[in-house]
Amino acid sequence: MLDHVNGIAFGVFLFLFLLVTVLGFAAARWRRAASLDNLDEWGLGGRGFGTFIAWFLIGGDLYTAYTFVAVPAALYAGSVIGFFAIPYSIVAYPLVFIFLPRLWSVSHRHGYVTPADFVQGRYDSRVLALAVALTGILATMPYIALQLVGMQVVLQVMGIGTSSDSWFVNDLPLFIAFGVLAAYTYSSGMRAPALIAFVKDTLIYVVILVAVFYIPHQVGGWEHVFSTVSDSFTSFNAENADAIATGAAAPKGTIPPPAAQWAYASLALGSALALFMYPHSITGVLATRNRSVIRRNAALLPAYSLLLGLLALLGFVAIAAGVKVENPQQSLPQLFEDQFAPWFAGVAFAAIVIGALVPAAIMSIAAANLWTRNVYKAFINRDATHAEEANQSKLVSLLVKFGALVFVLALSKNLAINLQLLGGVWILQTLPAIVIGLYTRWLHRWAVLAGWAAGMAWGTWLAYGVASPTQKHFGGPLVFLPGTETKVYIALLAFGLNLVVAVVATVVLRAMNVAEGVDQTRPQDYHADLGDPGVEARLDPEAPAHA
Amino acid sequence: MSSRRHWTLIGVLLAPAVVLPLWVPLYDHEDPTFLGFPFFYWFQFLLILVAVAVTVPAFWLSRQADRLDRVRHGLTPDAGDPTRTDGR
Predict the structure, then answer these.
(1) A7-29+39-225+268-412 has which fold?
(2) What share of chain A is helix, strand, coil (3-state, %, to 5)?
(3) Could you tell me which residues come within 8 angstroms of residue B31 by beta carbon, excluding any fewer than 6 positions away?
(4) B32 interfaces chain A, CB cutoff of 8 Å
(5) What are the residue boundaries of the structural domains of chain A, listed by start?
(6) Shortest Cα distance from B47 to chain A (angstroms)?
(7) Residues of B numbered 33-72 whose beta carbons fall under 8 angstroms of chain A's beta carbons: which are they?
(8) Distance of residue B32 Cα from the nearest chain A Cα, in angstroms
(9) Distance from CA of A412 to the nearest CA of B (A)
(10) C-alpha–C-alpha distance, residues A351 and A203, integer Å
(11) Digits of tens for pLDDT over chain A (547 positions)?
């Protein structure tokens, strides 16, 4: 299974992979706590990460390997709308700046580990918390699966495991990589991805900076890149004019056509709103030491956006460099293999694969915490001790990763991509419960639930109805705005319905005097910071969670 | 100055970082190019820098606003000792 593999590239790759494996296991001893037997330590790294570590951790968490592979792939394929990842990542941080410190404060004061814990405390409804938790788990699972897809394309380009007929032998390297990841996440918890993120991000920065300065220079400069790509797309559009006219093929371009501007903007806004509803983003944020860490990072994290934008353009560079691959996702790794010396190609491949491990670890921890706190503790074992909670989370983190693995290998990769698309639509429907809940209790708990249900149902139904040249359902994230010829992002439409239903139902429920539950939070909890009563640097794991 | 005015100012500062990237017709053009990049691309890279530039003053304002908010909610202006990193 190792034919056609460059020995030097593979050697460097293996060395770096082994290095992060050692780091992952050693992380259990880093910033050592008395015990990892509770979720604050295992699941949130002791809630003690400062600005510097948080920058690596959250950056490594949000800018995933799949993003690094898929965004250049979109541009390589001539689908320039994929560049919406840039405005999306610009718009997200001012929003973070405003609302996340409030979530941090209230979560720290009440010992909330998950966003659904907050919803439970605020709205006094286990059912609403369950809805938020299940949405989070559902949206996270395919996201983990996609990290595997990112790893897979790198391994394919390296030539590992492509010559056998058995899918098991082909994918053995993936099994090994994920097995190792599962083992150190199990033993070190959140500390493992935090420590590995240093290596991951350093490698990524070096590789991308070298790539964006060296490769375009090799192929004749950016001006040449853009003109080559433009010519190539123009001739593609001319040759396929008939297919484009009937909708059997999509036209290619280097900038979005005017008709796609709403799509571009709505994808950016919808994704920005959804970003920090994902459990893994919130888990990363709750692992920070104080309120200022989050706000400082809102100013520092855009450095990654710059990186992502440059990386995206490598999709165009690949066209100019003459990279020809069937699967556009292989364009970036193939470009690296063609242009870099073997040892540096090994570094680049390792950067992407390690880049998949960090978010996969955090996502599985976040999903496991949701299960433990809002399903297991809320419904199955209400008297679970902190040690039982931690054990449950550790086991579920294994299950989640194994599930993602089976998903990608045995089922279909396309299914994972479709579900990830739906995940974005679904997770946005938890925004009213979480973000609006941070500011006001005016929305009634059952109204929030009704809005969520309406948004989920309509969003899923809209996505089901989208056909593409290659598939009949779930063909893309865009639909026509009802009554117009303008395409917009499904998640935003569903979110609009969600809000309308929540507001109308609140008015009705309040008029009927339906019980609204007891809010366990006080106004001052949303402003608490490190050092206030109840916000100790090291939480007492035996303190009641919902005091 | 009450915290409300601080927060309004923070909102005004951060608004361009939200509005400009979403105002696609503003930058969906080929020209003028810069170092070979179409306007569409280099303008969005510029917006990243704009976002950082407005977030830094917003950060300093938010620290003052937080202190005012804390007092309003019956907390001390500053929480604990910020240099303390753990309970030991």
Answers:
(1) Sodium/glucose cotransporter (1.20.1730)
(2) 75, 0, 25
(3) B38, B39
(4) no
(5) 7-29+39-225+268-412
(6) 8
(7) 33, 35-38, 40-41, 44-45, 47-48, 51-52, 55-56, 58-59, 62-63, 66, 69-70
(8) 13
(9) 34
(10) 5
(11) 455 677 888 888 888 888 888 888 877 777 666 666 777 777 777 777 878 888 888 887 788 888 888 888 888 888 888 889 899 999 999 988 888 999 999 998 888 889 999 999 999 999 999 999 999 998 888 888 888 888 888 888 887 765 566 666 677 778 888 888 888 888 888 888 888 888 888 888 898 888 888 888 888 888 888 888 888 888 888 888 777 777 777 788 888 888 888 989 999 999 899 988 999 888 888 888 888 888 888 888 888 888 889 889 988 998 888 888 888 888 888 888 888 888 888 888 888 888 888 888 889 989 999 999 889 888 888 888 888 888 888 888 888 888 888 777 776 667 777 777 788 899 999 999 999 999 998 999 999 999 999 999 999 999 888 877 777 777 778 888 877 778 889 999 999 999 999 999 999 998 888 888 888 888 888 888 877 776 755 444 444 444 3
What is the C-alpha separation between A405 and A421, in angstroms, rounded? 18
Nearest CA in chain B to A31: B86
Instruction: Decide if A531 and B79 are in contact by the 8 Å CB cutoff.
Output: yes
Contact criterion met (CB < 8 Å) for A295 and B35: no
The count of C-alpha atoms lying within 13 angstroms of the C-alpha of A309, restricted to the half-sphere facing its C-beta, is 22
The SS3 assignment for A71 reads helix
Residues 504-523 of A with CB under 8 A from B: 523
Closest CA to B48 of A159, A94, A402: A94
| Of A53, A335, A75, nearest in space to A196 by CA | A53
B2 Cα to chain A: minimum distance (Å): 16
Phi and psi dihedrals of A169, rounded to 5?
-65, -40
Neighboring chain A residues of B82 at a CB cutoff of 8 Å: 290, 530-531
Q: Where are the domains of chain B?
A: 3-72
Query: Does the distance separating the beta carbons of B85 and A48 come in below 8 Å?
Result: yes
